[in-house]
Amino acid sequence: MVSIVGWAVGRVVCSVSSSCSKSTKPPGTRHEGFGERRYVALAYKRRSRLVVQFTHSMKPGTATICNPRPAVERPRVGVGMTEPVMIGDIADALGLGDHELVSLVGGGGKTTVLFALGAQLRGTVVLTTTTKMGRERTGGLEPLLAPSDETLLGELADRRVALAWRAVSDHKALGVEPHVCDRWFEMADHVVVEADGSRRMPFKAPLEYEPVVPAQTTVLVACVGAAALGAVISDQCQRPERVAALAGCSAEDQLTPQRLAAVLLSDRGSRKDCPPSARFAVVINQVLPSHHRYVADLAELVACQAQLACIAPFSPKDSPESAAAG
After folding, report:
1. What number of H helices and E strands is found in the chain?
2. For residues 12, 14, 20 and 24, what is the CA-based torsion angle, rounded to 10 degrees?
3. Per mean pLDDT, which range of 64-78, 93-107, 144-158 is the poorest?
């Protein structure tokens, strides 16, 4: 059984015995592989849960002592907002729950949305990438490089939001492996992952090895920069030939709502590698009044297969990264 001798966010002293069976184990408690020993461990609160991270070098493990987690009502697929929202409201517009692993793929605005969600999601949040991102894009946070679980938990306890990378090289931050994101999802309320690159182009179609989506992803968000809406595909898309092939047109044609919807909903396009249990959403960044008809048409085309949210234009000083740095 697991007995909590004393705890706080930080260190906790526990007495653990592996002798209790499933039938005698306290409700809401799980543990495995522990011998009878008193441990000094790490503890942190996640909603109503007390999560204990054992760090004994011989027999590491975890135990969770919790109250039943209430069910979270997720938005229905196809529910979306064609009216642009402020960047500070994007978490609500996406209907994110109390425990989400959000993977951001596609084109323009992924990093901005990443920091916006870090500021808006309730509870502890890990921000990271499985590919690469600009090392200067920190949102005012001090990046952790290949942090240990203990270091990451300490950062979450102190600051609530942690930015974690594997390493830095030149001007790029190098991402972690997808399974690391899955492990961090057991330690934090939320993990937000930049899981794709687009070389700052508003839209893209992935190559065979893209995107890099963690298996535990609960929401896959395809980002589209509004500059691509109605533009010539070769002018505003990364890998325009792949976009055109999925859309059934030429790279010199315009990206109409019908063509954009075809790429967004394709299993070889924006939905590529979406886990079967994950919800799929589309975010269009910097939507102007002149885009509203286009967005309304797109919303009809993706209804019942994707949630659509639009972000209104904002100035650099209103960016989530600037707000966090200030």
Report:
1. 9, 19
2. -60
3. 64-78
Q: Does some domain include residue 243? A: yes
β-partners of residue 101 are 191
Q: How many Å apart are CA 216 and CA 204, to the nearest integer? A: 24
Domain contains 74? no
Domain residues for 160? 87-325
Residue 280 lies in a domain: yes
257 and 177 together in one domain: yes
pLDDT tens readout for residues 6-33: 333 343 444 444 434 433 333 333 333 3
The reply to whether 101 and 26 lie within a common domain is no
Residue 63 in this model has a pLDDT that exceeds 70: no
H-type alpha helices, the chain: 90-93, 110-120, 149-159, 178-184, 233-236, 240-247, 257-265, 292-302, 320-325
| DSSP conformational letter for 92 | H
